[in-house]
Design brief:
Layout (H helix, E strand, L loop, with lengths): L5 H4 L2 E3 L3 E3 L4 E5 L6 E6 L3 H20 L2 H17 L1 H12 L3 H21 L5 E4 L6 E8 L2 E5 L5 H14 L3 E5 L6 H13 L7 E3 L4 H9 L3 E7 L2 H13 L3 E5 L4 E5 L5 H13 L9 E7 L3 H14 L18 H16 L3 E4 L3 E2 L2 E2 L2 E4 L6 H4 L6 E7 L2 H9 L3 E2 L1 E5 L3 H9 L5 E4 L15 E2 L11 H6 E8 L9
Parallel strand pairs: 7-8, 7-10, 8-9, 10-11, 12-13, 12-20, 13-18, 17-18, 20-21
Antiparallel strand pairs: 1-2, 3-4, 5-6, 6-23, 14-17, 15-16, 19-22
Helix pairs in contact: 2-8, 3-5, 4-5, 5-6, 6-7, 10-11
The structure holds nicotinamide-adenine-dinucleotide (NAD).
C-alpha cells in the first residue's frame, strides 16, 4: 500500500488518529491544472483544543522513554522518508507546484532532519554547576511539553519537519498546523511517516486549517512553545498572542534579501547564480534574492546577462513537462506579484524580461531603473522577480542593503573573499553567503533572520536544543540544611 494512500486520510485530520474535523473538508488543488486531487479535513479551534489535550496526556510517557527508543523512532522516520521519497515528491510536485529537483531536496532534507534529530537525543543535555553549598547542582534541559508548529505553503515539508523532528526527539509532543493549500505534503506526509516509524499514539497531531486554527494553537494553554514560519504580518499577530499568553514563540518571517555584486565579481557565473536566487521555486522562498545591488561599472552587463537567462528559462507544469519554474501557488498570490510589478513599472521602472503570465505561470521577470518608491524593490514580492539597482561605492551598497526592514539572508559576489566578509559585517542579517546567492539551507546550520525577518530564533544543529527545551536548575543534598527558623 502506498504510504500516502488517501483511503487513510481523505477528508480527515490527525487528531489522535485520522478523524473528521468540525470544519468539514477543503479541496487539495493542483495549481498547475486547477484539478482537485483530493479532500482534506479542515481543522477548527475545537479540533485544536481536542488535539492539545490529547498531546498533553501523551507527552510525559514519550519524554520518559529511554533516549535510545526515541532516537530509534526518529531514525526509522528518516528511513521511511527515504523509502517513500518518490511518492512524497509526487505530492510536492502536484500540490505545491515544485519542480522535481526541489521536491527531491525536500524529501532528502526531511530524512536528514530526522537523522540529525535522532543524534540530538544522545548529546549531553545539561551541565554541572559550582555551588557554595554542599550539594550537587545541575542545569538540565527538559522538554518544553507540547510544541505548536505552524508552517507555510512554499517549502511545506522542510519547514514543518525542521521543527517537528527536533521537538519530538527532545521529548515533546507536537501539534502541526500546515497551510491548507499544502496539507498533504506539509502535513499528511509527516503524520504517515511517523505512524510507520512507530511513534506512540497522541504524540503528534496534524491539523490542516486556516489562520483561525493557527491562532487557536497559539493561545491553547497546553501549548508551551510555538514555532511559526510565515509572513511578517501574521508573525506579529502570533508574537503578540504568545506574549499575552506568556509563552515562547520562535518566529521565522519574511525577507527581501540583497545580493551585492562587486566590480571584481565573476560575471560569467553571476547570471546563473542570480537567476537561481530570484527564480528558484518561482521566487516563493523566504530567502529569495529580492534586491540585486550591482556596482554601476558592471550593472549593464549584469542586467543583460540576467535578462537573457530569464528569457531562456522554461515555465510550465512540473508534473508533465521539464521546466525550471512551476506555477505560483494560487491566483491571489499571482495577482499580488503582478500588482507589485505593474505599479513599479507605472512608477518608472524598466522591464528587461518577463512581466507576463498565463494562468498561474508567471514568467521570470527582470526590472531595473528602480527607486525607493518601487514596490517590487521595497516589498517582499514572493514571486519570480529580480529587481536590479546600481550603486556607486561600498557605502552606498551598505546604505541600500540596510534600508530594508527585513534581515534574513545576504549574498555577496566578489573576487576578494575578505572584502566580502568585511562588507557583510556592516549589513546585519541572519545568514550571509560570500560568492553565492541568498537561498541556502543545511540542517546542521543555525537558520533564522533578524529584525522584521524574525525574533532571532534559530533552528538547526545545536540551536534546536535551545528552541525546544526549557532549562531546569536541579539541586540535591544528602541531608537538609539548617535554617535559623
Ligand atoms: P502566512 O503568514 O499567511 O501563513 C503561514 C502560516 O501561518 C499558514 O499555515 C497560515 O494558515 C498561518 N497563519 C496565518 N495567519 C495566522 C495567525 N494570525 N495566527 C496563526 N497562524 C496564522 O504566510 P504565507 O504568505 O502563506 O507564506 C509566505 C510567507 O512566509 C512569506 O512572507 C515568506 O517569506 C515567509 N517564510 C518565511 C520563512 C523563514 O524561515 N523565515 C520560510 C518560508 C516562508
Amino acid at each position: 500500500m502506498p504510504l500516502l494512500d488517501p483511503t487513510v486520510w481523505s477528508g480527515k485530520a490527525a487528531i489522535g488518529g485520522w478523524k473528521a474535523t468540525s470544519g468539514g473538508t477543503a479541496p487539495v488543488i493542483e495549481p498547475a491544472t486547477g484539478e482537485v486531487l483530493e479532500r482534506i479535513g479542515n481543522a477548527t479551534a475545537d479540533d485544536v483544543s481536542a488535539a492539545a489535550r490529547h498531546a498533553a496526556k501523551a507527552q510525559p510517557a514519550w519524554a520518559r522513554l529511554p533516549y535510545t527508543e526515541r532516537a530509534a523512532v526518529l531514525r526509522r522516520a528518516g528511513d521511511v522518508f527515504a523509502q517513500h521519497a518518490e511518492e512524497i515528491q509526487q505530492w510536492l510536485i502536484r500540490e505545491a507546484g515544485s519542480v522535481p529537483g526541489k521536491a527531491a531536496f525536500e524529501t532528502d532534507t526531511a530524512a536528514q532532519e530526522c537523522y540529525e534529530a535522532a543524534a540530538l537525543v544522545s548529546r549531553a543535555l545539561g551541565e554541572v554547576l559550582p555551588s557554595a553549598e554542599p550539594r550537587l547542582s545541575l542545569a538540565r534541559r527538559t522538554p518544553a511539553g507540547v510544541v505548536g508548529v505552524i508552517a507555510p505553503f512554499n517549502v511545506p515539508l522542510v519547514l514543518a519537519i525542521r521543527s517537528v523532528a527536533p521537538a519530538l526527539a527532545l521529548g515533546n509532543a507536537v501539534l502541526l498546523k500546515p497551510d491548507l493549500r499544502t496539507a498533504v505534503s506539509g502535513g499528511v506526509a509527516l503524520m504517515r511517516v511517523f505512524e510507520e516509524a512507530g511513534l506512540p499514539d497522541g504524540v503528534l497531531h496534524v491539523l490542516p486549517g486556516g489562520a483561525d486554527a493557527g491562532a487557536a494553537l497559539v493561545v491553547d494553554p497546553h501549548v508551551r512553545v510555538i514555532s511559526f514560519t510565515g509572513s511578517t504580518a501574521a508573525g506579529r499577530k502570533v508574537g503578540a498572542a504568545a506574549a499575552e499568553n506568556l509563552k515562547r514563540a520562535h518566529l521565522e518571517l519574511g525577507g527581501n534579501s540583497a545580493l551585492i555584486v562587486l566590480p571584481d565579481a565573476d560575471l560569467e557565473h553571476a547570471a546563473s547564480t542570480a537567476a537561481w536566487g530570484s527564480f528558484f521555486h518561482q521566487g516563493q522562498v523566504c530567502m529569495s534574492t529580492g534586491r540585486h545591488l550591482v556596482h554601476q561599472s558592471v550593472a549593464d552587463e549584469y542586467i543583460e546577462r540576467l535578462a537573457r537567462k530569464a528569457e531562456q528559462l522554461p515555465v510550465g507544469d512540473p508534473a508533465r513537462e521539464q521546466v525550471a519554474l512551476g506555477p505560483i501557488i494560487d491566483a491571489a498570490q499571482r495577482d499580488k506579484i503582478h500588482g507589485l510589478v505593474s505599479s513599479s513599472l507605472e512608477g518608472g521602472a524598466r522591464l528587461m524580461a518577463g512581466g507576463t503570465y498565463e494562468d498561474l505561470f508567471y514568467r521570470p521577470t527582470v526590472l531595473t531603473d528602480l527607486t525607493d518608491a518601487s514596490p517590487a524593490y521595497t516589498e517582499e514580492v514572493f514571486g519570480p522577480v529580480a529587481p536590479v539597482r546600481a550603486f556607486a561605492d561600498l557605502d552606498e551598497a551598505v546604505a541600500l542593503a540596510t534600508a530594508s526592514s527585513y534581515g534574513l539572508s545576504l549574498g555577496i559576489l566578489t573576487g576578494d573573499v575578505m572584502r566580502g566578509l568585511d562588507l557583510a559585517e556592516r549589513i546585519p542579517t541572519g545568514l550571509v553567503h560570500i560568492n553565492d546567492q541568498t537561498v541556502n539551507d543545511e540542517v546542521v546550520a543555525p537558520f533564522g533572520g533578524v529584525a522584521a525577518s524574525g525574533t532571532g530564533a534559530r533552528f538547526g544543529g545545536n540551536a534546536n536544543i535551545e528552541a525546544f527545551t526549557e532549562t531546569r536548575w536541579i539541586t540535591a543534598r544528602t541531608t537538609q540544611p539548617f535554617y535559623p527558623f
